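Please check these two lines:
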Amino acid sequence: MLTLDTELLWSLNSKRHLRLFKKKQNKAMDVIPSILKMLEDKKVSATWAMVGHLFFERKEDVAYSSEINEYTHYERETESFSSHFNESLYHSPSSIEKILDSNVYQEIGYHSYSHPIFTQISKKEAEKEIKLSKKIEKKWDIKLKSFVFPKDQVNYLNLLKRYDFKIFRSPPIFEDNNPNRISQGLGNFFPKSVFPFRMNGLWSVNTSMIYFDPKIPFIPIRFPYTSLPSARFGLKRAIKRREIFHLFFHPWNMIIHDDFERNLRKFLEYVSKMRESTEMKIITMGQLADSLEKKSKKEIK
């Protein structure tokens, strides 16, 4: 299982990352089509968890309309530097059209509207973020089943159920079975296979690892050349246990990390090879939820 936290500039608050984006923004605009092409070449489906702003052109963005004239501070902060970047890094309906038109099935998921941290906002703000998914569904004639919380900070699950989401992503689990941010680094060395579970009337599945070389917690040093062998190890272990290997990353990782594209291409080649030689299946979050719902109904009967 592969999920892509697709937010482009809506989540970046690091000055270093913003400088890199400004320097490489022409390449940044090609990131989504480039990754999509790699997935198509290896016939891999993914869940693209999209920030809501990306579905609209700037002039039609509902968050700037009088309907939500007091929206959140995330837009106001972004406005201060948005003039330095191409608008397609904030609003990119053309990228979503490419994903929907892919010759290999790709799921569009929801990553909130403006990428707030749900453990740091009120229930009222959270409902605005989630409710806007209905406008997206209507405009694009799609059904959003899968929700990915920004930075995996899970909260307000009752709102997801109210607005018809079926599944959400949970944080990685370390050996003590407690989700935490450090586990995203340490857990990357020996990623765990995961299994879906039920919570608050929704399905959920933890992540196994984030796909880039991990860094030492609290120290800005990365362990080079570890993401590819770790991902191979995790996938092989999940196949053996008949469980799920759930990889995720951000498309902008391709801009920030020089070896990301090469490593991702190699991993997708490995995925293709394992699919041909084993009973492994590639599914999206939404497909997993549909399968689990179908199985549950059969069991009730």
